[in-house]
Every structure is written in C-alpha cells, then in structure tokens.
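Q: My hope is that you can spare some time for a protein that puzzles me. Underneath my words sits a plain record pairing an amino acid chain with its backbone structure tokens. Those tokens are not coordinates but codes from a learned vocabulary of shapes. Thank you; the sequence and its tokens follow:
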Amino acid sequence: MSLALVTMSHSPLLDHADPPAEVKAAVDGAFAAARAFVADYDPTLVVSFAPDHYNGFFHDLMPPFCVGFEALGVGDYGTAEGPLDVPTELAERLAQHVVDHDVDLAISRRMEVDHGAIQPLEILFGGIDTVPTIPVFVNGVAAPFTRLRRIRRLGEAIGTFLAALEGERVLLLGSGGLSHDPPVPQWATATETQRALLLDGRHPTAAARDARQQNVIRTAREFAAGTATIRDLNPVWDQALMDVLARGDLSPVDAMTPAQMAEDAGNSAHEVRTWIAAFAALSAAGPYAVETSFYRPIREYIAGFGVMTARSVA
C-alpha cells in the first residue's frame, strides 16, 4: 500500500473566463505538474473528497459526509455526464470502517456529483472512469457546518482503512476552495424561488441550468472588473492554510470556526474541508512530504486558486 495526494481548487469558470495569458499559463503549468505527479505514481484507486453545489445534495437531506457506493456526473458546466467506476464492495468496507471508528456518515447507492468532483478527474486522468474512484461528499455549502476537528477525524478514519489495503496505490483527491464567495444562495437570505432550488433542485431543465451558470459567469466578469458585491479573495488566509497542511501537523485547523471561515474567506471557503480531509487521510499513513505547491488569487475564477501534491515518505 502507498498513499499520495493532489488537492486542487476547481472552478466552473475554467472554460468560461479569460484571465491574463500569464495567469492561465501558470494554472495550466500547475495542472501539468499535477498530471505528471499522478502519472508517475500510477494510482490503482482514487478516493475523491469533493463538495457539491446544489446539484446532487439539497436541503431536503443534507449530510455532513457521504460515501458513494455508486456515482454519476450530472454534466454541469460542460463536465462529463454518466457513471464513475466505483468499486462498490470496497466503498462499502470503507464506510463500515469509518463508522466503526466513531465517525458517522451517510451512504449513497446513487450519488450524483457535479463539477466539484468531476473536474479534477478530467484534468488529471482525462475522464471520469479511467481509474476506480470512491467519491466522498463533504458538505461545503449548507449550515450547520461541522467543526473542522470532525473533518480531520473523517480523513484519519478513511486513511487508516486505506493504509491497511495491500497492493493498492491510492491517490487522495481534495477538490475545492480556497477563499471564494461565488453567488451561491444562502438559505437564510434566499428568495422563495431560490429556496425551492436549494430544497430540491434536482435535474433542472437545460434552460434552468444555463440560467444558473450564466449568473456565475456574469458575476465573475463583474468581480474581475471590480464591480461585484461578493466578498474579496484572501491570499493571506489561503497561504496560511496551505502552510499548515504542508507542515504535517493538522491540529491548528481545530481552532477554525465555520463563522470565522466565512467572514475571513467567503461562504464557499468551507470547501477547504476537502483539502483537510485529504491531508488527514494522508497523515494516517505516517509522515508525508509536499512535492509541488502552486497558488494564485484569480479574480476571473472567483477563487484563491491552489494546487498541491504530496506523498507518504514512511
């Protein structure tokens, strides 16, 4: 058994925005480095920690964590539709192990995943079914949010299971973040129309999905121009978190509170829970070393944009 990791920001705007050429080249370079890292590692199994953006999980039933025993992409923002190659029996064993280690979670035998989970698979592997993948949903949009020590414990429980597998090269993916505040409605301030979407907006019409997406694209253009009213990016916050993750001692994240995270880094900064879970899983196999680390605040993507790779050194 061995463990390696890629954490990366995702953005539905990658194909819908035009940052300066040198910024796009830098992001493409970071993705290329991550692909080379993954190709060298040649994983036999992927465990993907990802959020959702009200495409698969809604307020009618919003778990803090969910392991998918089967999963399919919904195809938002032009990402791939259809089934992932989920090793169901192994996912069932993983879920039982996590519950046995006192971390409660939900399971889904028909998990629907959006660009948050699909985009990293497409960037790193060129498709969504090239490597067996166990998807782990981590709520990053809907209050109430768990404290981050629970996220760390989730990752550690998953990591101890993976560390005991024989003959597997496991790649941990953490998708989301960093600081960003896209126009995702909040239940407390949402209109009745927005609440209907947040409650159960599954399988929208093509026109309804396009309207949602165009709103995000429009906001990104306004944000790049300095006219949007969303919260600004916070590079200091982003890089401080990346430094903690790189050092290997994740205990400082326990002091972070959901309210302060949103205040400091935007409502969707909660997506960094996926990074914390992935690094916690990696830490369960022993010491690790970060091999590459990239960061740029990119207003055109409404994101403090980061990519990290790491692997166990034990």
Q: What stands out?
A: The longest helix spans residues 21-41. The two ends are 11 Å apart (CA to CA). The longest strand covers residues 288-298. The CA atoms of residues 86 and 133 lie 5 Å apart.
